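Notes from hallway chat w/ T.B., transcribed later so I don't forget. T.B. wanted the structure written out for a chain they're using in a teaching module, and asked if we could keep both sequence and structure tokens in one place. Agreed to drop them here.
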Amino acid sequence: MTTVDVIIPTYREAANIPPLVERLDALRRELPLELTIVDDDSRDGTAEIVERLNLPWVRLIVRTADRGLSASVLEGLRRTTGELIVVMDADLSHPPEAIPRMLEELARGSDFVVGSRYVEGGVTHDDWGVFRWLNSRAATLLARPFTSIKDPMSGFFALRRSTLAGADALNPVGYKIGLELLVKCRCRHVAEVPIAFADRLHGESKLTLREQQRYLRHIRRLFIYRYGTWSELMQFAVVGASGVLVNLAVMTALLHAGVAIPASIAVAIGTSICTNFYLNRRFTFSHSIHEHMPTQFLGYLLSVSFGSLVNYGVALGLLHYFRHLLPQLAALGGIAVATFVNFVALKYIVFKRKHYRPP
């Protein structure tokens, strides 16, 4: 039978290992299952527990550098060889008893199988709080551009090694390695197996505000990977919208302070140009953040000046050809065209990609 490699990343989960190993051992009566525990140097007795268990099908990898859940899973993927791979948490929130059904879905032709809380038959523990539920739902909504499955946040999943072999460069941020693999392996046939998701048996949750911020960075990376230039254009539009708000806020504050209207308008425009430059350099075109800033800023000023001329010309042209058009609508048309022109100029001239760096 084909070997099943179960990979479990751990950090201070020593108390959960014995009951987890016991439940996995029960599955070995039917499955040629091997367990790889990838521990982030917990120093909580994990190594001693695995040594006392002394089971030939259980091995421990201790990592002391580049620690983190996703990095631990990737290490486990590199250090195992079984054709079938299962990844799960160590806290007993994922029921090992669901593994046989997940493997059955792989056998039926699925590329990727998720242990799901949100499909029919899936449940969460009664003590799950409202905040935790809302956090999970919000994270799921952010993942919608990449997959339509109901529980893309699940850390309990299975795939074939042949599917993994076709993955593009993996560079996850944070703890959602499953979503990274689902997207980068270009999985088309994804199945969800219902599970009863329980609260952890021992220890404390590793879900912190910092991890949530990393998830947002991860989502941004996946957007850029999946949608390329369109993702940059969307970021550019968001930055542009923020510039409008900055412009109005600065102008209103100056006028309230008694500054003359022409000066207020000029300062507001200059301020929004500077904030837009910073945000576009930091986010929209982050691959160029290490390039020479003064040179980029000069190119930016030239580009937005050209865009302003395009904006003006388009608006006047629309008013000329559509004589009954509202000036405000003509202005919006000019802004739309100028936004695209500015984006192209900035992307291919000012912030052009010279060397790839993950955003």
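Follow-up for T.B.: The chain is about 50% helix and 10% strand. Might be a good example for the class.
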